[in-house]
Amino acid sequence: METRDNVLIRVKDLKKYYNRGAIKALDGITVDINKGDVMAVIGPSGSGKSTFLRSLNLLEQPTGGNIEFDGVDITKKKIPGPDGRMVRMNIDIHRQKMGMVFQHFNLFPHKTILDNMTLAPMKVKNIPRGQAEEKALQLLDRVGLKDRASAYPIQLSGGQKQRVAIVRALAMEPEVMLFDEPTSALDPAMVGEVLDVMKELAQAGMTMICVTHEMGFAREVGNRVLFLADGRLLEQGPPSEMFDHPQNARLQDFLSKVL
Amino acid sequence: MKSFIRLENFPVVMKYWQLFLQGILVTVLLSVSTVVIGFVLAMVLAIMRMSTIRPFYSLGLDKDGHEKEYGIGHTISKFNPVSFLATAYVEILRSTPVIVQVFIIYYGVFGLIKLPSFAMFGFIKFDRFFPGVVALGMNSGAYLCEIIRSGIQSVDGGQTEAARSLGMSSVQNLRYIILPQAIKNILPAIANEFVVIIKESAITYTIGVQDIMSAVNAVKGATFIITEPLLVATAIYFCLCFPTSKLIAYFERKMRRGDKR
Asked: Which of A229, B187, B217, B225 could form a disulfide with B252 if both were Cys (CB 3.0 to 4.6 A apart)?
């Protein structure tokens, strides 16, 4: 069993309701995410996968439950400060440690690739420009896009944009990376280059949570798979068990459709 | 048969060229001041409308600290008095005629506040000019506020999500991500509003501001010629408005250049 120290994000009974509870996007999800986990979140559309992921850094405000990240319950408005007094929880501090990659890239169109990458480190972490640019170029080199540093996002292909989006998040040196269907908006020919970057990232030991429809990726790279349906966590386990010996009927049905 | 225009009337009208020249100066001065006041006011109003000041916020939390989804506490907690005031201002100003606003400001407000009566540049009556600027500025502030607000809201929500997920605060997001993109989006609408202000400033002749329209009126009173001075005014207004909109269109094209491949 994993020890307490190894848990990075502890999600307890997470709920997200819409329309006075008529729609239950998340209906009590409890899961621990350990350091170094590469977790694939799968499930039919409308199952709450994205809502779950977006709740983790509070892009969605949960209706109930707790999310403990680095020992702080980020669903609380006030948390105990260093001196024991209650202080306002500042989500920005925690978001810095959670990189996020979106389905539609969300690069800043009015800034060059380099500026896209250096803006947050410079403004949020107060890193000097020179140092931020050096780090950004290193990261761009890692994904083979160093020569596009001065281009604007519109000049890149979808796959290139997503690779930039990944290293933009990495430039903040996060503890965990959240991927929200990172390949769903891409040409089939460009899916591979993005998955390669993600694979490399996983091998380097990054904690990753990926909402994905790429079952091959989930099986090959992930060490855990969560299956969500109707806002509930129906089954979880290592990919080999999940894909080869699914227990839940909904998972069996889902896999028969996508595999 | 009487003709619409009599060419022999133009030399008569032209004797009053000085009045038209003064009118142009007043109209330009009036429009520029209105734009400045209107824009500053609009910025303040837009920020007020989009603010998240919620004094009764805590009424909308359950005992666990989560936001309630419904109920009276939830409704009250959503109330933002700052946004309410700004919205009320904008809606009232947009739903009433400019001439009524100009009269209320001139006869009502500045009927109580005594303005110093001196002449700017030797001929502009300050106690007429100033109420005109205030009334037009207040009016265009309401319209520009809506333009700015819609521009900010037209920026894709994913931009905010990306900025916030990188740890940027809402102020940093607005300043570095949203506003630069919003301003590009709203330039055509702002250009349109500037042109509207130039044209709308004509209404201030009713409170005795000596703009182009008041020059027309003066010539009409002195010579009983009506059509020709109006045509002169038409030409002048066109020469002010058309280049203004073209100039802003030029800047707009220049700013869009960054978007192209």
From this structure: B187
Top CATH class of B9-259 equals mainly alpha
For chain A, percent of residues with pLDDT exceeding 70: 98
Contact yes or no for B176 and A119 at CB 8 A: yes
Question: Of residues B122 and B253, which shows the higher confidence score?
Answer: B253
3-class SS at B70? coil
ipTM score for this prediction: 0.90
DSSP H helices in chain B: 9-14, 17-50, 72-77, 81-94, 98-103, 110-112, 126-154, 157-165, 170-172, 179-200, 212-223, 227-256
Q: Do B159 and A106 touch (CB under 8 A)?
A: yes
Which residues of chain A lie closer than 8 angstroms to B162, CB-CB?
Answer: 100, 102, 106-108, 165
Give the pLDDT confidence of B88-125 residue by residue, as tens digits: 999 999 999 999 999 999 999 988 888 777 777 777 88
Tell me which chain B residues have a C-beta less than 8 angstroms from the C-beta of A78.
65
Rounded to two decimals, what is the model's pTM? 0.80
Contact A120 B163 (CB under 8 A): yes
